[in-house]
Amino acid sequence: MKNQEIAKILYEIADLLEIEGVEFKPRAYRRAAQNIESLSVDIEELYKKGQLDKIPGVGKSIAEKIKEYLETGKVRKLEELRKKIPVDIESLSAVEGLGPRMIKTLYEKLGVKNLDDLERVCKERRLRRLKGFGEKLERKILENIQLVKQRQQQRFLLGFVLPEANAIVEELKPYVKKISLAGSIRRRKETIGDVDILAVADEPEYVMDLFTGMKRVEKVLAKGKTKSSVRLYGGIQVDLRIVEEESFGSALQYFTGSKEHNIEVRKIAIKHGYKLNEYGLFKGEKKIAGKDEEEVYKALGMQWIPPELRENRGEIEAALNGSLPKLVEYEDVKGDLQMHTKWSDGANTIEEMVQEAKKLGHKFIAITDHVGSLKIAGGMDEEDVKEQAKEIEKIREKYDDIYIFHGVEANIMKDGSLDVSNSLLKEVDLVLASVHSAFRMDEKEMTKRVIKAIEHEYVDIIAHPTCRIIQKREPIKLDIEKVFEAAKENDVIMEINAYPDRLDLNDIHTKMAIEMGIKISIGTDAHSKEHLKFYELGVAVARRGWAEKKDIINTYNIEELRKLFQK
DNA sequence: GCCGTTTTCGGCCCGACTGTTTTCAGTCG
């Protein structure tokens, strides 16, 4: 699938045009890029069907460039722009305070093409002599270059930040009238740059004192009456803003984003002759909404949009015509369908996992220890599985309010076969299959490999289908659409692995799978009882993927699941 | 370059902040 590649090209064209000072076109290219990026179908398919212009923001000219790229692997317009402005935009614009206009000036006047050039002209004090630049700016840029250099991957995993952010909210709650997370963490994005918190308080100064004085604060970065920023131990930055009660809703809407979502919402406001900002929705001077989010959306003729959907991926249109999905709720999930115990590489016994799952309110769990050749993860053989079955049977008798499915996680070998016999797989209720080795095959081979596993007569679920580890390992190369088609045909379920650095399937793939009629399971892949709480992250991905209750099998009752796992 | 129940031409999101200026351009979220 070349959607991401094409989006990247369009973004680069947008940046280069912006540097050239071209008006409006950059926005058009970015809009198209953004829509292509979050497309849930393969753009090449659309092209073959002659439906490129069905993509919002893609007109005749951009469609032409997509066609050119798909046919020749190049876009002449981009080549020309690169020749004209041979600068490393990606790293230069990563420098805070440096935008396209300055990049252009720096290139034209001082020949700055990359970070090293930029650092040099700053150190040589040549930047400050340019018109419109000055000493302060030069110093700031120099500082920010260092930040870019050391930053690289400074985003934090949702799963590790969310508990801390929630704890801060709880800590401040007794002293404020209203409080909520905002920003990407409220939208439950898989990684978080910084945490935004919004509150209403009678005594803002006192709340700011509490906030900046928290034990978990390493450094206070800024402190004011309406906004304070701190850095916690561990490096994450948290901003607290205090707003007027009458504006809480519009401020929450504004600070929750995403930016792209807000742009569209504001356009709708304009169509109505209104103006929307963080202080409220205004008709002329008169404020007509702003106290809570619901009334803001309502005044614009829209349904309230759950934060997880606010990515400008079609939720605006749906909210306008009242067709938003009824998203699966966090409390709809009644169990966890992947976890490991001491039988393979887990830290706890089956019974300990059962007790912890009960605490979380689960009605069922699946024990899915490794089997077969994955010796490093303690893969069980057929004898072990039989022994384990006996233990599970005993525990089932002891706990009548939670059901234990006996499953296994089998490895998909290089040729697509599983590394265990059918006689072992027949022993258990549930078979997960997943790739744990040879991650670097080409797309064609890898797709064939996974599809072969999907076609296996005993496989129920493909676990962590793309094998990505966020910020560490790229996803395996898969023709995801072909994989999903095979899954659909063979009634195989796709997993959302809820472990914080996996979240695999991701949101976009989840949406795509659901649109193709595939069922989704959520599994934490817990290797200790403490990991079981991560199931919420799986629900978050499901919601970001527009999943309804019926799409997620963890919402089913035990009888329905038994039927589903009959293979 | 795209788009349209106010338009097929004339628009394109908004406000705050910073650093540089003396009324504003550029950047950010």
Structure description:
By secondary structure, the protein is an alpha/beta fold. It has 4 domains: 3-151, Orthogonal Bundle (DNA polymerase, domain 1), CATH 1.10.150; 156-242, Beta Polymerase, domain 2; 258-320, DNA polymerase, thumb domain (Beta Polymerase, domain 3, 2-Layer Sandwich); 330-564, TIM Barrel. It has 24 helices and 17 strands. The strands form 4 sheets. The protein has a 7-stranded parallel sheet. A 5-stranded mixed sheet has the order 2-4-7-6-5, sandwiched between helices. The chain is globular. It binds one DNA strand of 29 nucleotides through helix 2, helix 4, helix 7, helix 9 and helix 14.
Question: Helices and strands in order, then pairings?
Answer:
Elements: H1 3-20, H2 25-37, H3 43-48, H4 60-72, H5 76-84, H6 89-92, H7 100-110, H8 115-123, H9 135-151, E1 156-157, H10 158-172, E2 178-182, H11 183-186, E3 191-192, E4 195-200, H12 204-212, E5 217-223, E6 227-232, E7 237-242, H13 248-256, H14 259-271, E8 275-277, E9 280-283, E10 286-289, H15 293-299, H16 315-320, E11 335-336, H17 350-359, E12 364-370, H18 382-398, E13 403-411, H19 422-426, E14 430-434, H20 443-454, E15 461-462, H21 480-489, E16 493-497, H22 507-515, E17 520-523, H23 535-544, H24 558-564
Parallel strand pairs: 4-7, 11-12, 12-13, 13-14, 14-15, 15-16, 16-17
Antiparallel strand pairs: 1-3, 2-4, 5-6, 6-7, 8-9, 9-10
The structure holds one DNA strand of 29 nucleotides.
